[in-house]
Design brief:
- Belongs to the 4-toluene sulfonate uptake permease (TSUP) (TC 2.A.102) family.
- It comes from Neotabrizicola shimadae.
- InterPro entries: TM_pro_TauE-like, TSUP.
- This protein has 242 residues and is mainly α.
- The protein is built from 11 helices and no strands.
- The protein starts with a helix and ends in a 6-residue tail after the last helix.
């Protein structure tokens, strides 16, 4: 481990926390590509899952009254089926292959978010299940399960406050599924706990600042900045550089 690695890891965590606190998603898209380059995909994914579920918990009580739990339960059922598949890929594939896969998924998800495409149809249990399954697969392999859910929910009739609340509650449940799967798979060990201690303070500070910015900052400007950060994270962490 090189000397600056923990500091770089914490800096990436701080930036990811800002996006998560502001919008309810986006942490993994910013965090996973560079963190995978620093410590490897398995440690990056398991550390993010552990830290996020602990530090994002205070956001849940305020979000719960604004959401429909039955719809979220259907989506979580879809995620429960596919998270183990993603976790199996995370455990089975070699690190270099995983880094290319994570960069590829992040690039596709970035394109989806940047395109502005949103699902305009009427919410339906089958659609809920399918979106949850897609999100669960990407969450299991790299914790990058946000964009399918965002594209699905932000196309509805509710405002961005309601959509943010639904995203927060869904990912609380999805993170629990991921964490349980990682534990059963033996992916979480002492190294995960060590890097969680490095990541925790910086990520928590980012969550706090991002949540405050949500009520103060211009949503469009922050969204553009987040997309730029995701693109930068993907490009600078490509395996071709090292």
């Amino acid at each position: 481990m090189s000397v600056p690695t923990p500091a770089l890891f914490a800096l990436v965590a701080l930036t990811a926390g800002l996006a998560r606190g502001f919008s309810g998603f986006g942490a993994a898209l910013i965090f996973m590509p560079p963190a995978s380059a620093l410590v490897g995909p398995q440690l990056a994914a398991t550390t993010l899952a552990l830290v996020d579920i602990v530090l994002a918990a205070p956001m849940i009580p305020r979000a719960l009254p604004k959401v429909s739990l039955p719809a979220i339960a259907v989506m979580l059922a879809g995620a429960a089926v596919t998270v183990p598949v993603g976790a199996w890929l995370l455990k089975s594939l070699d690190p270099m292959t995983l880094r290319w896969m994570i960069a590829g998924i992040a690039t596709v998800m970035l394109g989806l978010l940047a395109s502005g495409w949103r699902y305009r149809g009427t919410p339906h249990p089958l659609a809920d299940l399918a979106v949850g399954a897609a999100s669960g697969l990407f969450s299991g392999v790299a914790q990058i399960g946000g964009p399918p859910v965002v594209a699905y929910w932000l196309g509805g009739q509710g405002d961005h406050t309601e959509a943010r609340a639904k995203i927060i509650v869904f990912f609380a449940g999805s993170s629990l599924i991921s964490l349980a799967t990682y534990l059963v798979s033996g992916l979480i060990g002492r190294d995960t706990l060590w890097w969680a201690l490095v990541m925790g303070p910086a990520y928590g500070l980012g969550l706090f600042a991002g949540a405050r910015l949500f009520w103060l900052a211009d949503e469009r400007s922050f969204r553009r900045a987040s997309l730029l950060l995701i693109a930068l994270a993907v490009v600078t962490s490509l395996p071709v550089w090292r």
